[in-house]
Amino acid sequence: MFKKILIANRGEIALRVMRACREMGIGTVAVYSDADRKALHVRYADEAYHIGPAPSTESYLRIDRIMGVARRSGAEAIHPGYGFLSENEEFARACEAAGIVFVGPPAAAMKLMGSKTASRQAVIRAGLPAVPGTERDIDSLEEVRRIASEIDYPVMLKAAAGGGGKGLRLVRSAPELESAYRNARSEAQNAFNDSSVYLEKYIERPRHVEIQVLGDRHGNLIHLGERECSLQRRHQKVMEECPSPVVDEALRRRMGETAVRIAKLAGYVNAGTVEFLVDQDNNFYFLEMNTRLQVEHPVTEMATGVDLVKEQLRIAAGEPLRLGQEDVRLRGAALECRVYAEDPANNFFPSPGLITRLRVPSGPGVRDDGGVYEGWTVPLDYDPLLSKLVVWGSDRAEAIARMRRALGEYEVSGIQTNILFFLRLLEHPDFVAGRLDTGLVDRVLAGGWMPGAGRSGEAELAAMLAAALDLSRNVQKAAGSKRATPGAASAWKGSGREALLSRGQGPGARGWGTRDEI
Ligand code: MV4
After folding, report:
1. Residues 399 and 503 in one domain
2. What does the pLDDT look like over 447-505, one tens digit per residue?
3. Rounded CA gap, 120 and 304, in Å?
4. 262 C-alpha vs ligand 1 centroid, how far in Å?
5. How many domains is the chain partitioned into structurally?
6. Does the global pTM surpass 0.90?
7. Which of the residues are catalytic?
8. How many separate helices (H) and strands (E) can be counted in the chain?
9. Domain final residue pick, 175, 201, 227
10. Which atom of ligand 1 is found nearest the CA of 232?
11. Are residues 117 and 246 in the same domain?
């Protein structure tokens, strides 16, 4: 096993990898930009090296600077985390050339899966289910007209070099096609410096379900079940869960086997994720493969008991997988909320600034993968993720109740967060019933979820926590459990109450009722 690893990332994922290293007795090397001089991952690492100014292009994306630190520090391997250089083929090759182990797949697998058309082509030719559509990009308007009429509307135009929803155009009828085609191409050119677009049949109200795979360097490749990722806002996942309420054991086995065959096609090694769309008839279609550890990996860890980062490190060190497919089973239910420094009342714009008070949730079945601390100033230079709040319950109802309870304990002052939004989502009847699809978040947002006019955010929060509490009771009853839902709407009655009272707002203004009355 390695003696020292460089973590080429920042924030919560850098800390997550460092925690696995520390448990394995592996030394950790952090890199940081000007903006991260006092960041938590720098404070946690055994060694830390400055790599440049705040802009990522001058620091976390600078392959030369990261390789320079790897050389200077004597790191034997580099873990890229997610984002930044984690799916950058040039970076993987630079590690190879420098004799440093890249904790991830071979560059060739990264290259194949980095092209949406090449990966689709490989999957289609292997006779595996991909969304009906073209295998390669479309060069002319005539061609796109012809193919669109063949696969029939609605269709979706997509950037071949794309990802994250850029260059997507839903086309419901022929008259819209020309402008959609031109716009998709120009958006793809601007976003990816590659105007290639391809065409797919549009899957109505799809669910977004992904399969975690793990492959070693000895040909062993297994899957670790699915993650439900349909709750997205502007193509950003907001809340994920494992298992998916829409997947039964038979579908799980079929999707898992398909994902393993796709990974084998790519000669995949290490942790990867195969994304599928699932239609209303539970048919599933390959969408794309992510050749990195995902943000939402903790829900798989909580439901399987597998530490995916440790498995990544063991695979990178050449060890054979200790787990066989028969050893993998999902137990209970896990939920993750991505807690962001953003202001839902201001269109979820980032809300950077000094965190004047921070108290994160804990207690039974709660894990907070955080990258910030009280006194830290959230910079504007990077994704403003504060932490991933993850819970595990014996079943989905308990996981929902536990997430509500944990969110009620989460206290952040000095910046805005999206915590209120999660509380609303967790009480939506479609969510509670597991009636999920990629449009649900937009429906919740359109449904005027924000604090009502004339009531302060705190009052709304207290009212919502109370409502959530009531719903928890109902959910518990529905689940047949005799347990009364413990706790009160505001978990930190002391500080919560003082805070509310001091501002003369919220229920506190009229005096807090007893637990039952809130
Ligand atoms: C689709 C789709 C329906 N039909 N493709 C592509 C990028 C990824 N983030 C989501 N993508 C989708 N591809 C076909 N053929 C639905 C999605 C999709 C989605 C599309 C538009 C708006 C929000 C969405 C959320 C999840 C999935």
Report:
1. yes
2. 877 654 334 555 655 666 665 555 455 545 544 444 433 333 445 655 444 544 444 44
3. 29
4. 20
5. 4
6. no
7. 292
8. 17, 22
9. 201
10. 25
11. yes
